[in-house]
Amino acid sequence: MRVILLHDVQGTGKTGDVLEVKDGYGRNYLIPRGLASEATAAKEREVADQKARDKKRIEKERAEMVQLATNLKDRVVEIKARVGEGGRLFGAVTNADVAKALGSLGFKIDRKKISLDPLKHMGQAAARVHLYPGIETDITVQVVAE
């Protein structure tokens, strides 16, 4: 029996896979639980079309992230903070502050994608921005007095 998986099934396959399974497994387990549907020519074409659209979308996203990485590469982000004696900050500069500063420069990046130890002194520090799996870039964070 040929089925199209509607959800990931451990040990069987991933969503969208068209598989040949035993009749009992398909009729008694996969289909009643909504994990799969019986494969027809029309459904197989629909799945193939969906996979092609997904692949195209992923390639487009990846190209956009590569472009963003080249725009961010070696950029210096200046953040103003209140400073006490000896250049020590009141509080700390975190990845949320860097994301906000990048947002003011026109780059919309989630704070969770920025790797940075909290900065407690004035000066420069390196931060890594994880944009997409396998696409990362480094930026410099410059902390200056307000």
Summarize the structure.
Helix content is 34%, strand content 33%. By secondary structure, the protein is of the alpha+beta class. The chain has 2 domains: 2-60, Ribosomal Protein L9, domain 1 (3-Layer(aba) Sandwich), CATH 3.40.5.10; 68-145, Ribosomal protein L9, C-terminal domain (Ribosomal Protein L9, domain 2).
Structure description:
This protein is of the alpha+beta class and 146 residues long. The chain folds into two domains: 2-60, 3-Layer(aba) Sandwich (Ribosomal Protein L9, domain 1), CATH 3.40.5.10; 68-145, Ribosomal Protein L9, domain 2. It contains three helices and nine strands, in the order E-E-H-E-H-E-E-H-E-E-E-E. The protein has helices at 23-30, 41-72, 95-104, and strands at 2-5, 18-20, 36-38, 76-81, 88-93, 114-115, 119-121, 123-132, 135-145. The chain has a four-stranded mixed β-sheet with strand order 4-9-8-6. The longest helix is centred in the middle third of the chain and has 32 residues, at 41-72. The termini are far apart. The mean pLDDT is 93.
